[in-house]
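Exercise 7. Given the encoded structure of a 110-residue chain, write a plausible sequence.
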């Protein structure tokens, strides 16, 4: 692939690095999409132990973002950010493929 299909912002990379260090895991964030949520699909985040052979990979400041091949079709071109506000702090996905989303920002439809 000549172009990275997903991106990780510096803010998200810093947060993943802090969480991984605290948990004693490698700084690899896995983004997956599964059915559910109030809009049809929902994002699932978790630390991964390794990069799988069919993963799409993006790197930022020593942190790796991985997306499995099936989920990639739904999030290609997205950016993962970490946002802190008065309402709380969370990873946030800006997904150009989403036709609509829910109010909480954790689910979407295509």
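Solution.
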């Amino acid at each position: 692939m000549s172009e990275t299909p997903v991106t990780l912002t510096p803010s998200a990379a810093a947060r993943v690095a802090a969480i991984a260090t605290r948990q004693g895991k490698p700084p690899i964030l896995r983004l997956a999409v599964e059915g559910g949520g109030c809009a049809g699909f929902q994002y699932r985040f978790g630390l991964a132990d390794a990069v799988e052979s069919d993963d799409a990979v993006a790197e930022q400041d020593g942190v790796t973002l991985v997306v499995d091949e099936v989920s990639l079709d739904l999030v290609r071109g997205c950016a993962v950010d970490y946002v802190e506000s008065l309402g709380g702090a969370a990873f946030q996905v800006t997904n150009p493929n989403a036709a609509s989303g829910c109010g909480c920002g954790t689910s979407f439809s295509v």
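Remark. DSSP finds two helices and nine strands in the chain. Students should compare their own answers with the one above.
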